[in-house]
């Protein structure tokens, strides 16, 4: 946030004491805002528990902006960032950034390769990976999807990023294009159903639906052709935060509930993000603070990755202590 426009200012030696004080205040508010955004990123939905803190931070930013006007800073240095919502995922990942999910990967792969074929009614078995936001459901799905044995087992594999916009037609088109490279429009569900059945017929397939939010039974009913088109052994792997999604997918018995990362895995992930290779030993004063920060993350991989990346360019003990001592941690703990 503030780093994006403070850097050009800080390269100049600041002799003005008032300006130095203002920059220090602004940095502290910036860290509070960054931490709040991290909590938003791992909550299912930002809720009322953050309302007062949001107002407090907005007020502090407004006060800092008003105070900063008297320094005549160049607005051209400010960089505006816009968010397009949730980041689209894919089947590709960096293996070196994954820690502590070896056992879970083995268990998911075993389910995908199991001899259990179809559910009642002849539908492909659905395996939902369920857990709170930020635990690493997508990462676990990527690990299983790219496993060598899994790739050998299935005739076709398709990865579909779903998110909160559950668009049945778009899901169908993605499957068709991935398997046949067909970019036809297919204006109706009927034409999509026929084409899906055609490309999946007599094939053992694995389809991943990543980040599914819908709890509307009608949405799942429209998606049924994906479950019934292939041969025995076809599988659907779904990642979702809600257990209700598993029930709607007719898969209460195969639901895989993902737990938090272990303490050792959390620390390894944080070190990988916060310290360039070999740099950890150069900052022994930061390590105990980092351990305290990691312990506050509750085993949530996304929070650890984000905080590690945030702290990577910061080598001041004070900067790390601001994150560790933020009141926002207490706010989240009181809710839990």
From TrEMBL:
Q: Where is the NB-ARC domain?
A: 122-277
Q: State whether keyword Aminoacyl-tRNA synthetase applies.
A: no
InterPro entries in the cross-refs: Apaf_helical, NB-ARC, P-loop_NTPase
Glycoprotein as a keyword? no
Domain of life where this protein originates? Eukaryota
GO MF term (any one): ADP binding
Which biological processes are named by the entry's GO terms? defense response
A Pfam match is NB-ARC
| Keyword terms | Plant defense
PANTHER family, from UniProt? DISEASE RESISTANCE PROTEIN RGA2-LIKE, PLANT BROAD-SPECTRUM MILDEW RESISTANCE PROTEIN RPW8
Entry protein name: Putative disease resistance protein RGA3
According to its UniProt entry, this protein's organism is Morus notabilis
